[in-house]
Amino acid sequence: MSPKSQSSSSSSSSSSSMSNSSSSSNSSSSRKKIVVLVVVVIVVVDEVVVVEGIVVVVVEVEVVVVVVVEVVVVHLVEVVVEVVVVLVVVEVVVVVVVLVVVVVVVVVVVVVVVVEAEVVVVVVVVVVIVVVVVVVLVVVVVVVSVVVVVVVVLVVVVVVVVYSSSSSSSSSSRSSSSSSSSSSSSSSGSSSSCNIVVVEKIVLRSRICLTENARTHASHGRTDDINLGITKDQN
């Protein structure tokens, strides 16, 4: 009889220790999560028009990035840094891909429409301008991402502070009734989490103009007659 009772008690203690370890691992795994739900890129070539020897290509790009973050209030700063990094990396990659698509479209239009021009000269000019535009867009994307994330996090912090203060006052009133209820409420309050949803939409509109007169001077190495301009509108 006695050895059977000893074996049963040891098995129950081991199962309780396993449940404790699983609960601790669950609480540590639910500390913070970053999930990029949607990254939508829409590239539309609005128009390709030749008016009085000028080739105009209008490309419109729309990017929607949605990031959902589950955070604990204590680790809010670390999660903000990670959200900014995710947004910046995603948007920089999207901008670079979009500009590569724009360059390919421009080169195709030049080859098809302005056949007699030196394609190498036009490609060099387009690449130089695209590099400058990439640098400017990366700076703009970083600034916009930081501002959006900071504003969202400030709003969440205010809501969480108000909610935590109200919950702490209610838990303190409950603690006067019984010590066990106060300990359970404090443990539940430490594991409270909140959700941050960041939605950022970027619209890029590129207008690229090429004059057909570039073919008359391309053989002499002159590129000043190439009217090449890129305008960006960001919403």
TrEMBL record:
The keyword Membrane applies. Keywords: Membrane, RNA-binding, Transmembrane, Transmembrane helix. The chain crosses the membrane at residues 34-59, 79-112, 119-140, 146-164. One of its GO terms (molecular function) is RNA binding. Residues 1-28, 167-192 are annotated as: Disordered. One of its GO terms (biological process) is mRNA splicing, via spliceosome. One of its GO terms (cellular component) is cytoplasm. This is Uncharacterized protein. It comes from Dreissena polymorpha (Zebra mussel).
